[in-house]
Design goal:
10 helices; alpha+beta; nine-stranded mixed sheet; Purple Acid Phosphatase, chain A, domain 2; 16% helix; elongated; Jelly Rolls
Length: 586
């Protein structure tokens, strides 16, 4: 009898624990199959989502097989200012908020149980400012409450674009792994009774967004029935393009090969570093490569092995093609100077700020086009900027290309003190906006800036008008986080193909290790305002579709000398190449 009682007690205990960690069946049956997602088809409304959001609701269905994965129901694009995700992470509901660079927090509701059951489940997360809690409801029942931190003490109006079923700002791994039937966002904090009513028909004056995706089809836009006009536009973006499926750039006179932040490749995939350098070296003739440009963050930890691999890689170009490199914030100046000593390179450059390779320049010509490659250290100080300006003045008939690690932010404006990891405070002396005001804007022969530092899944192109009426184009190249999170080396190289007169540039973003092109939106083109030419203010993506639907107003200016008088195309927050054009104040 005692054995039987112990057995019954054990069974009862198991049932009680199971009830605690198992999501109850939905109280309202979901109709329709819902919408499925992938890395190549995501949905986002045009423009910013300028609404306060305190309640997030969704009908979702995720297979049990995906319970260890991460699935974004909705997210805003991260620019370091304000950001939100409503997601399922490792089977549990989660919300994350970033109000500013130093104000970010996340809440995971682990006590609700794993919602990846293979059946329809209604998930709601409510911010209750009165009780200072975040509450998670499953199928209309409150399952867990967590305290609000200082990050979300006040209402936040999220001004960034929203993405449904994924996230534009990172790699593609966080797209929703099941189906979503319905999404609703309310300005107010919904009560338990209101949430139960919402399970059948979300409505009310505080409803700011509602998508009914019961019978939605992949590739079609989603109507916002709240009346606020946030229709979700289907944005197809081919993640990877095989070489045989990509129409190659053939109409060009010469090219430059640009290596973005190679830190992740060097640290996590050391065997593939040589592959990337060898690909460039072996294609010097076939692709008419005239210069190779490294944008800094050559290393991740600045250890000896990383520097040895980088040195061996660049040495493959000796005798084949000229090249330039700069130091990033992950690279210590001491080891940089030891790896690339002045004694080795002093006869290969036009001059330097000091007897080292931290700040130096080169001049060369391709056909009739004269170039000055000006390589500047991470966050160069005022003395370096003064010297750089004097070099520009010494070569007025040369088109100056500035190569520096940190200059442009993800939103297409020069880096400011408010942005993520600005040079000032992180080892540098001037931020991007400082460089613009003190140096770049003043010299009409500066035509192109190449930089990295800020991580994203896209190339970012920006156009700014200097004080002399010239247009300065900037290209941001850095997918180090994508490389790190890819679970396999990519060895990305941005190939810049120039017309004979140097005015037109076609860009291919290519993985040297997989022989594929990364994202259709990154295969683009732009024009350059060369010395003596009329300024250009346009840029186009050669592969992306629907670029005109992906436009929005610019969010911030460069400096006191600039205004947002011209805004060309700004679809970067929605996953396309970001293009911003500015001009000086009249």
């Amino acid at each position: 009898m005692k054995k039987l009682n112990r057995l019954l007690s054990l069974i009862l205990a198991i049932l009680m624990v199971s009830a605690l960690f198992t999501v109850s069946l939905p109280v309202s049956a979901a109709t329709g199959e819902g919408l499925t997602f992938s890395s190549e088809v995501l949905y986002a409304p045009d423009g910013a989502f300028d609404e306060v959001a305190n309640t997030f609701e969704a009908w979702i269905k995720i297979p049990k097989s995906e319970r260890t994965k991460r699935s974004f129901i909705l997210s805003s694009s991260w620019t370091g200012n304000r950001y939100i995700t409503f997601e399922i992470k490792s089977g549990v509901p989660r919300v994350a908020v970033t109000e500013a660079e130093d104000k970010e927090a996340s809440w995971e509701f682990k006590e609700v149980g794993n919602v990846c059951t293979g059946g329809w489940i209604h998930v709601a997360i409510v911010r209750d400012p009165v009780a200072s809690t975040l509450n998670c409801y499953i199928n209309g029942e409150l399952k867990q409450s967590l305290p609000i931190t200082d990050v979300w003490k006040n209402d936040i109006a999220f001004g960034e674009p929203l993405c449904i079923g994924g996230q534009w700002g990172t790699d593609s791994s966080v797209y929703f792994k099941g189906a979503i039937r319905e999404i609703a966002i309310f300005k107010t904090s919904r009560t338990a009774d209101e949430i139960k009513a919402d399970m059948n028909a979300p409505k009310g004056e505080s409803l700011v967004l509602h998508y009914d995706m019961s019978n939605a089809k992949v590739g079609e836009n989603i109507k916002d029935t709240s009346g606020n006009g946030y229709d979700a536009i289907c944005r197809e973006n081919q993640l990877w393009i095989k070489s045989e499926d990509k129409k190659p750039v053939t109409d060009y006179a010469y090219s430059f090969a640009v290596i973005g932040d190679m830190q992740a490749l060097n640290y996590y995939y050391p065997d593939s570093v040589k592959t990337m350098f060898e690909w460039i070296a072996s294609n010097v003739e076939s692709k008419k490569i005239k210069h190779v440009i490294g944008l800094g963050d050559i290393t991740e930890k600045s250890n000896t092995d990383e520097w040895s691999r980088a040195k061996a890689g660049f040495q493959l170009f000796d005798g084949k093609v000229d090249y330039s490199f700069v130091r990033g914030n992950h690279d210590t100046a001491a080891k940089y100077n030891v790896t690339f000593p002045w004694a080795t390179y002093k006869d290969k450059v036009g001059g330097a700020f000091a007897n080292n390779m931290l700040n130096y320049y080169k001049t060369f010509s391709v056909g009739e086009v004269k170039y000055l490659m000006l390589n500047l250290d991470f966050g160069p100080n005022d003395e370096v900027l003064k010297w750089a300006g004097e070099i520009c003045e010494q070569y007025p008939d040369h088109n100056v290309i500035i190569n520096t690690h940190a200059y442009l932010y993800l939103d297409g404006s020069p880096i400011t003190a408010e942005d993520h990891v600005p040079p000032v405070g992180n080892g540098g002396s001037n931020n991007g906006d400082d460089m613009w005001e003190k140096f770049v804007s003043k010299h009409e022969n500066i035509v192109l800036i190449l930089c990295g530092h800020m991580t994203g899944n896209r190339l970012v192109v920006s156009k700014d008008e200097g004080v002399n009426g010239n247009t300065v184009t900037t290209l941001l190249v850095n997918t180090s986080n994508v490389e790190k999170n890819n679970n396999g080396a990519l060895g990305m190289v941005a190939m810049l193909y120039f017309s004979e007169d140097g005015k037109s540039v076609d860009v291919e973003y290519y993985s040297t290790t997989t022989d594929r092109y990364y994202r259709s939106i990154n295969q683009l083109s732009f024009d350059l305002d060369l010395v003596g030419e009329e300024p250009k203010e346009t840029v186009a993506s050669s592969e992306a579709e629907g670029s005109t639907a992906d436009t929005q107003a610019a969010a911030s200016g460069c400096s006191s000398t600039l205004s947002l008088g011209i805004v060309a195309i700004i679809p970067a927050m929605l996953g396309t190449a970001l293009v911003v054009a500015r001009k000086k104040e009249d």
